[in-house]
Amino acid sequence: MFLEINQVVKSYRSGGRKSPSRKVLNGVDLALEPGEIIGITGDSGAGKTTLGLILAGIMRPDSGRVSFAGTDLWASNATIRKSISRRLQIVFQHPESTFDPQWTIHQSLSEPFILCGVMPDLSILADHLAEVELNSEILERHPRQLSGGELQRIAIARIMALNPKVVVLDEPTAMLDALTQARILNLLERIRQRTDAAYVLISHDTDMVNRFCQRIHRLSDGRLE
Ligand SMILES: Nc1ncnc2c1ncn2[C@@H]1O[C@H](COP(=O)(O)OP(=O)(O)O)[C@@H](O)[C@H]1O
Ligand SMILES: [Mg+2]
């Protein structure tokens, strides 16, 4: 198995340090194959984002195991964890939150390359933008000069530059109109066919999940159905 979580538990305290804690995830198992698209639905507050952050290797569960290609993520040293985390990426509902408002799109799109020690040339950035149906003329703009749909497409281009194996999509189109939503889902599907990345689509919109996903789970009472 490729990405797998077993018996994952995560609690949050409702207030300060002494307040009672509530188990948002209470023994969640999930396994993902390369290129698979699975859907996670559930009511607001069910723990979907929490599960997404754990699948993306960003949040450490209280207990349980997260493993990628057989390696236990949280039992590994920082170097191994970093190399696994690069393969696991997440797209958030609010693309604005993933961009530094002071940076140009050029700077934001270059960042993943620079983190890997390479300075990308313009033609590489233009290729990544073309894949999300954007023209390289937007490179000099700042986030506030772009629409929500454009920013979300740039957020997708940015994580795809890291060549992820698993992409968690946490309500990626919830803030967008129906036409923009359809366009983004189409381009995500095209990118998946090229890269064979697996997708975890998180959404409260069961119709959309039904249309897009091969397998659907519902998060309820801290467990996946
Ligand atoms: N950092 C946090 N601290 C305390 N409670 C949190 C935190 N993050 C989420 N929660 C709570 O955990 C529950 C699940 O949140 P979340 O995973 O965001 O659910 P969903 O994405 O399904 O709406 C909610 O009740 C939320 O208020
Ligand atoms: Mg959420």
Provide an overview of this structure.
This protein is α/β, with parallel strands linked by helices. Helix content is 34%, strand content 26%. It has one domain (34-57, 87-224): Rossmann fold (3-Layer(aba) Sandwich), CATH 3.40.50.300. The chain contains seven helices and ten strands. It has a six-stranded mixed sheet, with helices on both faces. Strands 2-1-4-5 form a four-stranded antiparallel sheet, with helices on one face. A hairpin with a 2-residue loop joins β9 (215-220) and β10 (223-224). It is globular, with a radius of gyration of 18 Å. Residues 48-49, 170 line the site of magnesium ion.
SSE layout and pairings?
Elements: E1 3-13, E2 21-32, E3 37-41, H1 48-55, E4 63-68, E5 71-72, H2 78-87, E6 88-91, H3 105-115, H4 122-131, H5 148-160, E7 166-170, H6 178-195, E8 198-202, H7 206-212, E9 215-220, E10 223-224
Parallel strand pairs: 3-8, 3-9, 6-7, 7-8
Antiparallel strand pairs: 1-2, 1-4, 4-5, 9-10
The structure holds adenosine-5'-diphosphate (ADP) and magnesium ion.
Adenosine-5'-diphosphate binds at residues 12, 24, 42, 44-50.
Attribute tags:
225 residues, alpha/beta, Rossmann fold, four-stranded antiparallel beta sheet, 7 helices, 10 strands, binds adenosine-5'-diphosphate, binds magnesium ion
Would you identify the regions where 5 or more consecutive residues have pLDDT less than 50?
Answer: none
What's the number of structural domains?
1
Overall geometry comes to globular
| Quaternary structure state of the chains depicted | single chain
Kindly estimate the percentage of residues that lie in beta strands according to DSSP. Answer: 25-35%
CATH architecture label name: 3-Layer(aba) Sandwich
How is the CATH topology named?
Rossmann fold
**Got a strand count?**
10
SSE succession:
EEEHEEHEHHHEHEHEE
Average the pLDDT over all residues and give the rounded result. Answer: 93
Radius of gyration: 18 Å
CATH class membership: Alpha Beta
User: Largest sheet, order of strands side by side?
Assistant: 6-7-8-3-9-10
